[in-house]
Amino acid sequence: MKDVLEELAAARRAMGTGRVPAGDAYTIELRRRYDAQVDDVWDAITSPERLGRWLKPVTGDLRPGGKFELDGGEHGEILRCEPPRLLKVSWLYGPDADAWPGTSEVQVRLAPDPTGGTEFELIHAAYVDEPLFPTYGPGAGGVGWDLALLALAGLLAGGETVGHEVAQKSPEGREFIRRSAAAWGEAHLAAGGEPGHVAAAVEATTTFYAP
Q1: Which of 16, 63, 123, 158 is deepest in the core (most CB within 10 A)?
Q2: What pLDDT score does 165 carry?
Q3: How many Cβ atoms from other residues are within 10 Å of residue 31's Cβ?
Q4: Closest by Cα among 152, 153, 156, 151 to 168
C-alpha cells in the first residue's frame, strides 16, 4: 500500500487552460520523475507491445499522420512524434466522438534529468464544452491517467503492472482512486473551481471509478 501511495504522491497535478482545434480548452496536467532513462520511457509509451502492458492494447498506423485505436475505444491520430522527446495525439472516445473532431488532445514530453532519470509531462487538453466536465471535473480524465501512470511506473521498474479493473477491485486500488480524485479536486480548487462544485465532482468521480 505504501508503494502505491508513494507513486500517487510522486506526481504534481494542475488544471489549466489551452487550445484545441475546436476552440478553448481546459487542461489536466501531470508531471513526475521516473527512475528510467529517456529512451526506455520513450519506448514504453510508443512500443505497441509495451503500451498494451500499462495502458491498453493498441492497433493502427503508429506513425505521424497515422490513426490508432485502443482496446477500450479511445482512438485518434498521431499529430507529432519527435523521438525521444515529444508525442502528441488527438484523443477521442465514444461512438459519437468522430462527429466532434479536434475536441481533445494528449501531449507527452520527456526530458533527461542530471541523475539519469526522466522528467515526464502529460497534458490532456479537452474542449471546454466537453460534457463530462460539469459532473466529474478534471478527475474524469485525471484519475484514469493516474492509474495509467501507476502501471507505467511498475513496467519501468521491471515489476507487475496494475490494470484499471484490478485496481478498482482491490482495497489498495480503491484507496488510490479515492486519493487521486481528492488530489484532482485540490487542483480544481487551485484553478478557481467553486468549492461546492468541486466537492460534488470529487464524489462523482470516486463513485465512477470505484463504485
Answers
A1: 123
A2: 59
A3: 15
A4: 151
Q: Is pTM beyond 0.90 here?
A: yes
Residue with cell 502492458: 53
Q: CB atoms < 10 A from the CB of 25, how many?
A: 23
The per-residue pLDDT for range 62-85, each reduced to its tens digit, is 899 999 999 989 999 999 999 999
Q: How far apart are the first and last CA of the chain?
A: 20
| C-alpha cell, 121 | 509531462
Here the cell at position 187 is 487542483
Rounded-to-integer distance, Cα 146 and Cα 140, Å:
11
Helix, strand or coil, per DSSP, at residue 108? strand
Q: Are 173 and 162 in contact (CB under 8 A)?
A: yes
